[in-house]
Design goal:
13 helices, EC 6.1.1.2, Tryptophan--tRNA ligase, mainly alpha, about 50% helix, binds tryptophanyl-5'AMP, 7 strands, about 350 residues, aa-tRNA-synth_Ic, Tyrosyl-Transfer RNA Synthetase, ATP-binding, ATP binding
């Protein structure tokens, strides 16, 4: 049965990239599928163990999920550390995955920088915990932005190696299903999870530099629109957003070599649930001096209600904690069944 899992780290302010690349898509998927949305607090320890305000940040991501429209009664919203299976399965996956696989992760290389010997072991093992998040629920679909693609390929590699290494035990435990991967028949306990990376905003770029990803860690706040920004902030940032001197093209191929223009058109398209082609058909030939105010108005219309609802929710931390607790209990039941199967399969007494 199709099942969606995804997560967001409680580090820093959520920005438009997180919203358009991930959270807005989480909301859309809940109409068609069962969904589990997690605040991955354990992942946020890999960069820095001691966080100021980690609890507030965790609640803030949960508030963003709810404010954006995720229905925590129909679906599961919880925080990772409240379900022990994540760390437990991650340990087993640490023994399935190879160091070479981890060393090849571009995000590890970027985050560890030059002084790799001094990066935390957790940062290296990060993708193994991410695979555990997904496979603990045997989730089949994972909506994420483009930057998570390599981690999801690794998740499939871990699932595949586990299935192949323990095929006989999976059968003996009376669990798993026959699938084919390529041409190969496999008796699989873990599914081959499908990444869901689609739409105009799988990679929202910095407003200051169309070749850089919009990110929480960019020192310039002008580079991103935060979900907590008010109408004035949004207006100022879009006004200052880097562009080129040309008018907007009428067709998609006219955006080639124009990363800033392409980014703003993509943002407009995603915020209005339209395609980039459609947006260009309307705005082609117009200058940024006309397009930017339209984009500002659209962004404020979409983000202001979310912003207001987030503030309302954050004013009642007890309510958020209760939502997370209920979600953790429901997630914990599924997780416990998987852990019991996994222990049986690998022979832990
Ligand atoms: P995180 O917290 O960095 O980002 C959360 C989500 O936002 C997406 N995203 C973007 N999308 C488009 N444009 C951008 N500029 C942009 N920046 C961020 C990310 O791709 C992500 O979908 N490793 C994950 C968290 C995680 C996870 C998981 C995700 C842990 N376990 C299991 C899915 C399934 C991360 O650091 O996301």
């Amino acid at each position: 049965k199709p099942l969606v899992f995804s997560g967001v780290q409680p580090t820093g302010n959520l920005h438009l990239g997180n919203y358009l690349g991930a959270i807005r898509r989480f909301v859309a998927l809940q109409e068609e599928m069962d969904c589990i949305y997690c605040v991955v607090d354990l992942h946020s320890l890999t960069a820095q163990l001691v966080h100021r305000d980690l609890k507030e940040q965790t609640r803030s991501i949960a508030a963003a999920y709810l404010a954006a429209g995720i229905d925590a009664d129909k679906h599961i919203v919880f925080n990772q550390s409240a379900v022990p299976g994540h760390a437990e399965l991650a340990w087993i996956f640490n023994c399935v995955a190879r160091i070479g696989w981890m060393n090849r992760m571009t995000q590890f290389k970027d985050k560890a920088g030059k002084d790799r010997e001094n990066a935390s072991l957790g940062l290296l093992a990060y993708p193994s915990l991410m695979a555990a998040d997904i496979l603990l629920y045997r989730a089949t679909h994972v909506p994420v932005g483009d930057d998570q693609k390599q981690h999801l390929e690794l998740t499939r590699d871990i699932a595949m190696k586990f299935n192949l290494d323990f095929g006989d035990n999976i059968r003996a435990a009376g669990t798993g299903t026959d699938i084919t991967v390529g041409d190969q028949p496999v008796h699989a306990y873990f599914p081959m999870t499908e990444p869901m990376i689609s739409g105009a905003t799988t990679r929202v770029m910095s407003l200051r530099d169309g070749t850089k990803k919009m990110s929480k860690s960019d020192p310039s706040d002008l580079s991103r629109i935060n979900l907590t920004d008010d109408a004035d902030d949004i207006s100022r940032k879009i006004k200052k957003a880097k562009t080129d001197p040309e008018a907007l093209p009428s067709e998609l191929d006219g955006l080639e070599g124009r990363p800033e223009a392409s980014n703003l058109v993509g943002i407009y398209a995603a915020l209005s649930d339209r395609t980039k082609e459609d947006v260009l058909a309307e705005y082609g030939g117009q200058q940024f001096s006309a397009f930017k105010p339209a984009l500002t108005e659209l962004a404020v219309t979409v983000l202001a209600p979310i912003n207001a609802e987030m503030r309302k929710l954050e004013a009642d931390p007890g309510h958020i904690d209760a939502v997370l607790k209920k979600g953790s209990e429901r997630a914990g039941e599924i997780a416990a069944r998987t852990m019991s199967d996994v222990k049986d399969i690998i022979g832990l007494l």
